[in-house]
Amino acid sequence: MRFRLTPRETSFYDMFAASADNIVTGSKLLMELLGAETSARAEISERMRAAEHAGDDATHAIFHQLNSSFITPFDREDIYRLASSLDDIMDFMEEAVDLVVLYQVEELPKGVEQQIEVLARAAELTAEAMPNLRTMANLTEYWIEVNRLENQADQIHRKLLAHLFNGKYDAIEVLKLKQIVDVLEEAADAFEHVANTVETIAVKES
């Protein structure tokens, strides 16, 4: 790691960790949605919306700190990209839950639980990785595993699409369910964007 003669603003590390912890909360709400009765989904959606608002607040705090800090722990554009990608994850997870409620989906197709399990694991890994930005230590396995999980999510997504188009569902139901599984796939992509940004930061700081 490069030796620095200038002090650095270190509050970013805590804010990134808080943002990632909030994503874990969101992933747990997704898991809760899977086993919930239809009547309980609206309440889960409200809690997810609150978590998404908390994520927005965390992102705005990072941007405010970025705009008011003369010296940052790493490149400004990487801080912005990392904060934005973390925010995207929460947005996609909240959107998925909201769509399930709005579309009054009776039963999610088989395979969605695998999508959500992948997201939950990626959330745990991301939350574990964020504190390591302080030292840039033990991060390689993190981005390798998140990239592997994203590849797994791609495979699950393709199988889900094949299932949706096998003639079992009517056209309207296909449109509803496809939008939900597509948004969950976007969440997996956003986790990979976070991991790729962390890798970029680590390479620059090495």
- Decide which structural class fits the backbone: mainly alpha
Rg, Å, rounded: 18 Å
Classify the fold: give the CATH topology.
Answer: Methane Monooxygenase Hydroxylase, Chain G, domain 1
Number of strand elements:
0
Please, how many domains? 1
For the record, the CATH architecture stands as Up-down Bundle
Contiguous helical run count: 6
Mean pLDDT: 93
Estimate the strand proportion.
under 5%
Terminal-residue CA separation: 5 Å
CATH domain class name = Mainly Alpha
Q: For this structure, what is the CATH homologous superfamily? A: Phosphate transport system protein phou homolog 2, domain 2
Poorly predicted residue ranges: 1-7
* Percent range of helical residues: over 70%
What is the H/E order? HHHHHH
Q: What gross morphology would you assign?
A: globular
Instruction: Tell me about the largest β-sheet.
Output: none
InterPro entries: PhoU-like_sf, Put_Phosphate_transp_reg, UPF0111_domain
Organism: Streptomyces pini
Family: Belongs to the UPF0111 family.
Pfam family, one: PhoU_div
